[in-house]
Design the sequence.
């Protein structure tokens, strides 16, 4: 396996953030195992206030596992993990409670008064002001995902986590959602961690792209070009590199794909061992 | 074939296909058999006679009085059964320790045939109201318990995780996510319990009762009054249907969010 990875190596990643604001997330040498499977192995991660970061990785690279820790769904068990208490998640499946009307889904768990007003405001922000009293099961996929976005934003989170939030949407809805998410991010300025396997999406939206593989962050790229329709063209070189990185093992051994890859897709070590031995 | 004949034929075809046709036909044959003397009255009274008896029993107050006694037994027994089943279902559904403590007992409860239990209840509680209510209560615990417990365990774990990620504590997760998620199952358990309650009512009222529908049936048997027996059978059926309709109404109100009931 000798595909040269041209994206910057990880070593010098974590000293160049002095220009950023307050540090929101800090993970050092983070590990996560399920039984004998090590999903995340010695991962370092820093996120700063107000930045939009994408986390790229193939299936089984540990993206979702990492996000579960940052979201507080999994406990960190005394590891060196710093995450803000004020955080919210947008899941790939909207995960609305079907027995609560839309505005109550947005307001779930909110404390204080004027809860309906706050929920209503958030829903207007995602252009769903007319569906406050709808039942979630009557919404389209895009609408449900916007409700889920409103539910996250109404909490004014310091950290907004998104787990492949656009993956289930059709190709026409997705760009609209990208625009909406960018607008909301610019209005509220949370730190965003977007988990995705879509390279174009990562480049179009982020300040910084991280690549996760075998439970480690193996590459990072900062994008300074202004967002907009020229961005994809201007960063085509980066895109090629990132894509190349994500594809490396498939390129190395295309015949290996059927069965071997699928069967071991969550334990990449075995799969790589097989390739190396040839 | 003339137009009139065709019309008659079409009309006949429509009638044969109607759902209510077979019961009506059965009633007609039954009535005819009774009128011609083919079915003696001590075997089965004619439908017309049954209706007449029903009317008599209503205006003399005999039926309402006894129905009320039976209803009271069902309502008290069911309330206890629902209450105990719900509490135990919650405990076993929400905690591992609760499951270990109560589930074996509940499984035993569910496996004992109520009819076999009747002699024991008579030996313990005599022949008053108590064993009748106790039998109904005992037999209605299990369906409520089992469905609620199963419903709680079947709540989508992703919804619970989402709620946790939004900072809901355990009590809030139970209230906002787990209980509403288990409600459809609980209602199914209630429907099942209702039909069991009517079934057990019949058995319970065979125990030396001095009032109630079962008492009417027993008396009627002694005097070969098949018309009264059929009236009571009808009342039992109506009781079962009414209970089912009640829970359906409850479902319609409480589960308005479900796609099958949701108004687009």
Sequence:
């Amino acid at each position: 396996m000798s595909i040269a990875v041209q994206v910057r190596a990880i070593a010098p990643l974590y000293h160049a953030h002095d220009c950023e604001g307050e540090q929101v997330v800090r993970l050092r040498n983070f590990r996560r195992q399920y039984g004998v499977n090590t999903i995340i192995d010695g991962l370092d991660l820093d996120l700063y206030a107000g930045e939009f970061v994408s986390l790229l990785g193939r299936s089984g690279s540990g993206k979702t596992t990492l996000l579960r820790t940052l979201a507080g769904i999994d406990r960190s068990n005394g590891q060196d993990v710093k995450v803000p208490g004020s955080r919210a998640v947008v899941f790939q499946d909207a995960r609305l409670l079907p027995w609560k009307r839309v505005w109550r889904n947005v307001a779930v768990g909110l404390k204080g008064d004027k809860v309906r007003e706050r929920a209503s405001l958030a829903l207007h922000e995602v252009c769903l002001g007319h569906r406050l009293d709808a039942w979630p099961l009557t919404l389209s996929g895009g609408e449900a995902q916007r409700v889920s976005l409103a539910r996250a934003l109404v909490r004014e989170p310091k950290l907004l986590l998104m787990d492949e939030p656009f993956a289930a949407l059709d190709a026409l809805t997705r760009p609209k959602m990208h625009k909406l998410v960018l607008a909301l991010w610019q209005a509220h300025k949370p730190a965003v961690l977007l988990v995705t396997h879509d390279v174009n999406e990562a480049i179009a939206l982020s300040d910084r792209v991280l690549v996760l593989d075998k439970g480690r962050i193996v590459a990072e790229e900062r994008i300074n070009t202004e967002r907009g329709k020229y961005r994809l063209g201007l960063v085509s070189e980066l895109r090629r590199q990132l894509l190349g990185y994500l594809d490396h093992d498939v390129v190395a051994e295309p015949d290996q794909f059927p069965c071997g890859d699928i069967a071991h897709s969550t334990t990449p070590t075995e799969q790589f061992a097989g390739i190396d031995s040839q | 074939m003339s137009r009139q004949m065709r019309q008659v034929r079409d009309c006949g075809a429509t009638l044969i296909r109607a759902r209510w046709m077979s019961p009506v036909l059965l009633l007609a044959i039954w009535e005819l058999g009774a009128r011609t003397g083919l079915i003696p009255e001590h075997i089965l009274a004619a439908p017309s006679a049954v209706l007449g008896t029903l009317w008599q029993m209503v205006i003399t107050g005999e039926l309402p009085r006894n129905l009320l006694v039976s209803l009271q037994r069902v309502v008290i027994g069911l309330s206890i059964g629902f209450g105990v089943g719900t509490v135990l279902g919650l405990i076993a559904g929400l905690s591992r320790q609760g499951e270990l403590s109560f589930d074996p007992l509940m499984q035993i409860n569910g496996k004992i045939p109520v009819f076999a239990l009747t002699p024991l209840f008579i030996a313990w509680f005599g022949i008053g109201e108590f064993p009748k209510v106790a039998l109904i209560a005992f037999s209605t615990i299990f369906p409520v318990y089992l469905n609620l417990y199963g419903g709680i365990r079947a709540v989508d774990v992703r919804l619970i995780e989402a709620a946790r990620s939004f900072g809901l504590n355990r009590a809030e997760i139970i209230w906002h996510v787990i209980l509403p998620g288990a409600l459809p199952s609980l209602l199914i358990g209630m429907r099942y319990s209702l039909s069991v309650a009517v079934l057990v009512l019949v058995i319970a009222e065979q125990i030396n009762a001095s009032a109630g529908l079962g008492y009417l049936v027993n008396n009627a048997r002694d005097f070969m009054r098949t018309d009264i027996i059929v009236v009571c059978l009808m009342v039992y059926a109506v009781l079962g249907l009414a209970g089912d309709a009640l829970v359906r109404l409850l479902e319609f109100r409480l589960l308005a969010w479900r796609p099958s009931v949701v108004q687009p």
Summary: The interface with chain B takes residues 68, 71-73, 85, 87-89, 91, 93, 95, 97-100, 108-109, 135-138, 151, 155 of chain A (CB under 8 Å). The radius of gyration of chain A is 19 Å. Confidence is low (pLDDT under 50) at residues 1-19, 250-258, 260-278 of chain A. DSSP finds ten helices and nine strands in chain A.
